[in-house]
Amino acid sequence: MSKLIVANLKMNMDYKTTLEYVENVNENIVICPSYIYIPYFLNKYKVGAQDCFNQKKGSYTGGISPFHLKEMGVEYVIIGHSERRKFEDDIFINQKIKVALDSGLKVILCIGENVSEDKFEKLSNQINNDLKDVSLDNLILAYEPIWAIGTGVIPTNEKIEETTTFIKKIVKDKFNKEISVLYGGSVNTGNIELLNKIKNVDGYLIGTASLNYNEINKIYNISN
Ligand code: PGA
Asked: CA 87: distance to chain centroid?
């Protein structure tokens, strides 16, 4: 089965590098640029936003509406990235997921533990709290151990497979649904061949390596 490759460009690039990227990055990759650069990608790519607000409309200065994103042609939204969770709790994340799904977006919900935390407990809590009363039809999970993001350090294949299998099982037990699970955290051209040997991973969420279109294109080609 083909793997979903998602590029999380975070708050990087500039106008010139964005235009060059649009010309060169593989069209099958889901691109999540900074909000400002989303329009440059819309006609050619499946686009994701890196976050959204927990309301569709109203007096929320500076908020980004999931409804507006959908109306513009955005297809996905990342919610609960660990770089956002620093400022947000599970209640807020749960609200955002519901409003995003209600607006017609597909949600990529990031979950993951820090080094000092009990992995299975943390993941179970995040799944229970963030997905409370949520329909999973348009939802994908991304397992991103916080300690692996942007560090160049990744879990062993065995650990990743153990974790994504655990995630799929608790979702199945709780919701009676099969769910896709991506892996994210320091995926690059140097480790993608090894990572591809893992069963139970449906794609990758890629930060640093996605900033270079040659690198992300290569990751796509090796994975698919
Ligand atoms: P990274 O980022 O690939 O640079 O580790 C992944 C992410 O933050 O989603």
From this structure: 18
Q: Do residues 114 and 140 lie in contact, with contact meaning Cβ atoms separated by under 8 Å?
A: no
Q: pLDDT tens digits for 129-162?
A: 999 999 999 999 999 999 999 999 999 999 999 9
Residue 190 Cβ inside 6 Å of ligand 1? The answer reads no
81 is catalytic: yes
Enter the pTM of the model.
0.98
Sheet holding 30-32: strands in order across?
30-32, 4-8, 203-206, 181-184, 139-143, 106-111, 76-79, 48-49
Alpha-carbon dihedral of residues 210, 211, 216, 217, nearest 10 degrees? 150
Which of 6, 83, 140, 205 has the most ligand 1 atoms within 8 A of CB, as the residue to mutate? 205
